[in-house]
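Helix-turn-helix domain-containing protein
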Amino acid sequence: MKRPTTVRTALAARAIGESVATWRKLHGLTVQQLAEKANASRSTIGRLEHGDPSVSFETVLNVCANVGVLDRVVDAIDPYETDYGRLRADQELPKRVRN
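Tokens:
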């Protein structure tokens, strides 16, 4: 059974979708052109731009690469680019985290 999407995730997906649409337009690309470049269907790009959180991670990364922001996305989740990550950098990280 699929778990429901949290409100926070839905809001993030919508914000990312709006940003993707803006980047696409800034690059002068149609939805079809971006879909071809990102190896996705036109409808998948439409779903992404409308905030559908079920679009595959691979598609999101391909789209980011094609609008020139993939490196920024990777940097945004780099733990060592945060104060917390830098503070913990000298500590040994656990090999596995168990719940």
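Residues 7-88 form a domain with the 434 Repressor (Amino-terminal Domain) fold (CATH 1.10.260.40).
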